[in-house]
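Hi P.,

Sorry for the delay on this. The queue was packed all week, but I finally got your sequence through. Input first:
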Amino acid sequence: MKRNIWILPVLLLCSSFNKAEEVKWHDWNEAQVLAETQDKPLMVFVYASWCHLCKRMDTKVFTNDSIAVLLNENFIPVKLDAEFNEELEMNGKTFSSMELLTELTGNQFMGVPAYLIISKTPGKKARLEAGLKDPQEMMALLKESN
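Then the structure:
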């Protein structure tokens, strides 16, 4: 019986060492400042609350430890709701989500889920990818864009 009492604390201790890495998502306006101060590109995950594939990206891809580490270390990760209508700022102008996406992609945005890689080089066009990605595809996209 005494031996069984020690099992729970040992299991709790072991589980604390096995904590999964999480993507540290930022909102658009905060990310603008961070990208400038940290000299990193933005990786914008464009989603909608009703989108099943977007939810799958959240639970199956962005929970992958390797992807989370790569995003947190090499990018400023941003989650942007495509239907968000509050003010988003860029270059002294104010946009809704759709206006911002139109501006960033040259009117190429087609739907969610989508991923924008926005270079730290001013004036360079954002890279746009769309659709459900598995962890390997997302890793390849991030490595190509880094």
